[in-house]
């Protein structure tokens, strides 16, 4: 035990204080730059902050590229679904998009409606539905999602179809179905 103690002491001293060959510093000087000042003195500076900022910038660019690729995949999926059936995708605002399924029946009340209308506006225009239900969305299961779109409200109208509202009471989906019985 007494023979090991001096070795441990020397190793600990070098780790904490540094070695004389590195100028008494434990810093990694791989990114060190020497420059000569106006008075002829050589200054030694490290560019670790430059390296960190470039790594952070690269991470931000990679995250942005992933986000853009994800959005392109979602858009392609929506367009594919729209091409299969009679689905119309409607952009109301920059971050609000809705869908209209099917074609309205002749004399349907749903022809007056627009994606993005509030639930109160819809009730004033066409009246209450025959039945309604609420359900949670997949975002509700994400522990890091604190946004507003955690549940939806679906309202059934006999002979017209269904309307889907977001948790902020905005119309997001219109489903035209003249065979709708009006109940869940």
Helix and strand topology:
Layout: H1 4-17, E1 32-36, E2 42-46, H2 48-84, E3 87-93, E4 96-101, H3 119-126, E5 131-136, E6 151-157, E7 161-166, E8 171-176
Parallel strand pairs: 4-8
Antiparallel strand pairs: 1-2, 3-4, 5-6, 6-7, 7-8
Label this structure with key terms.
2 domains; Beta-lactamase Inhibitory Protein, Chain:B, domain 1; 26% strand; alpha+beta; 184 residues; elongated; 32% helix
CATH arch. level architecture of the largest domain: 2-Layer Sandwich
Residue-averaged pLDDT: 79
Give the helix/strand class: alpha+beta
- Order of helix and strand elements from N to C terminus: HEEHEEHEEEE
Question: Could you say how many structural domains there are in total?
Answer: 2
CATH topology of the largest domain: Beta-lactamase Inhibitory Protein, Chain:B, domain 1
The number of helices is: 3
How much of the residues is beta strand, in percent? Answer: 25-35%
State the name of the first-level CATH class of the largest domain.
Answer: Alpha Beta
- Biggest β-sheet strands, sense, barrel: 6 strands, mixed
Instruction: Give start-end ranges of low-pLDDT stretches.
Output: none
* Shape verdict: elongated
How would you sum up this structure, described in words?
The chain is α+β, with helices and mostly antiparallel strands. It has two domains: 44-84; 88-184, Beta-lactamase Inhibitory Protein, Chain:B, domain 1, CATH 3.30.1450. It is built from three helices and eight strands, in the order αββαββαββββ. It has helices spanning 4-17, 48-84, 119-126, and strands at 32-36, 42-46, 87-93, 96-101, 131-136, 151-157, 161-166, 171-176. The strands form two sheets. A six-stranded mixed beta sheet has the order 3-4-8-7-6-5, covered by helices on one side. The termini are far apart. The mean pLDDT is 79.
């Amino acid at each position: 035990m007494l023979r090991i103690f001096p070795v441990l002491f020397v190793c600990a001293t070098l780790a904490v204080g540094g070695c004389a060959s590195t100028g008494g510093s434990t810093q990694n000087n791989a990114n060190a730059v020497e420059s000569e000042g106006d008075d002829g003195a050589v200054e030694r500076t490290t560019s670790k902050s430059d390296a960190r900022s470039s790594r952070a910038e690269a991470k931000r660019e990679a995250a942005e590229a992933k986000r853009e690729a994800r959005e392109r995949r979602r858009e392609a999926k929506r367009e594919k679904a729209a091409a299969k059936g009679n689905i119309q995708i409607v952009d109301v605002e920059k971050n609000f998009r809705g869908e209209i399924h099917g074609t309205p029946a002749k004399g349907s009340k749903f022809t007056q409606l627009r994606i993005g209308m509030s639930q109160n506006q819809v009730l004033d225009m066409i009246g209450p539905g025959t039945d309604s239900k609420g359900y949670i969305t997949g975002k509700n299961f994400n522990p890091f999602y604190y946004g507003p779109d955690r549940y939806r409200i679906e309202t059934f109208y006999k002979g017209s179809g269904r309307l889907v509202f977001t948790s902020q009471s905005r119309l997001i989906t219109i489903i035209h179905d003249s065979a709708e019985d009006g109940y869940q």
